[in-house]
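Justification of computing resources. Each target in the renewal requires a structure prediction run like the one illustrated here; the chain below, 173 residues long, is used simply to show the kind of job we budget for.
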Amino acid sequence: MNVTFELDPHLDETLVDQLESIWEAVGNAGGSVGTPMPTTRADVKVLSDKAFREVSEGHDHILVAFQDGRPVGFGFLSHNHPGEIFKHWAIVKRLQVLPALQGQGIGSALLKELTRAAKEQLGLEQLQLTVREGTGTEAFYERFGYEVVGRVPGAIRVAPGDDRDMIYMMARL
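Resulting structure tokens:
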């Protein structure tokens, strides 16, 4: 597999462009990464500008997976709730791997490394995330100790007439 990981790399213009390209490809492959289908770079920019700014300002973190020096996946650790009483946990957001490389264990390795970094480098005790009903991703996260803790019926509108539940999951580190 030969994948390396970097927590909070410098988000220069080239890396941002490469990560947005992954984001667009994952969205167009049906990935639940916050964008509509079909996904355009403009759709990605609506989310990525804020996400990368939060990382650059030190509020959130990004873990990037590299293969042969090129990014092939990434995920965010977001601190949506500022303040001392929430410092022990973060939200895993937009974990994604290039569609052409999915099924090779990169996503599993990325989640394991994100979890390790959250615990050992950031001192977190809990991770939370949401998944879209109907994608089967609950089973993926359950393999890594996540459990379903709630759901909001019809919270995600994939298309007119296609509303899905937002499923909340968490793992104790």
